[in-house]
Fold this sequence. Notes:
The protein has 236 residues and is mainly α. The protein has 12 helices and 3 strands; from the N terminus they run H-H-H-H-H-H-H-H-H-H-H-E-E-E-H.
Amino acid sequence: MIIGLEHHLATTFGIHFHNPALLDEAFTQASYVNEHPKEHLKYYERIEFLGDAVMQLCVSEYLFKRYPTMPEGKLSRLRAAMVCEDSFSKFAKECHFDEYIRLGKGEEKANARQRPSLLCDIFESFIGALYLDQGKDAVVRFISRVVFPKLDMGWFDHLLDHKTELQERLQENGDCHIEYRLEAASGPDNDRQYTMTVWADGHQIGEGTGHSKKAAEQAAAAQALRGMADGRSEER
């Protein structure tokens, strides 16, 4: 049993594993198994294989529902940015999963605990273990807390067109006059900062800043979309 891992998951995420052996397997690297042959341990690679597929499915389903008018190509690019080594390694670090990986002595000395590829593997294997232990709904609850909010935090803004999405949302039930207004511009010419607001039928619904007017408009639209999402959550 990995000391502290179950307590960490319980107190941080409210997750209680029914089969702790799955959790141990998900956080154990082959180098550790090789150094402890008498313990007959398993390492994470098979569960990682499953976790990758589960993440592909859950993220695909979430994006499909969240962006009902987004074409397939954009959905694929957005999913690829979310389901990749760079993103998964960051999620793993944020969850402090790096602190609980069982490594062999050589890998520990090589600082493998901070290696992005290993952190990505561990995140995927945890997802696989959680799926085996508690099913898809438990995975969705976890990534709804850890992964999906990153969309609203702007992690993937370079792949999104918030202005188009906002227009589609506001006009889905009829005409709506949308206007972007420049509120402020500051800083030297080589580092200009713009503040834009977005208005719908005369009401301000968002504000954002950026180093260009277009970037500030996108930020304002993103804030408006977050406000609309929060409003729907409160209604539920």
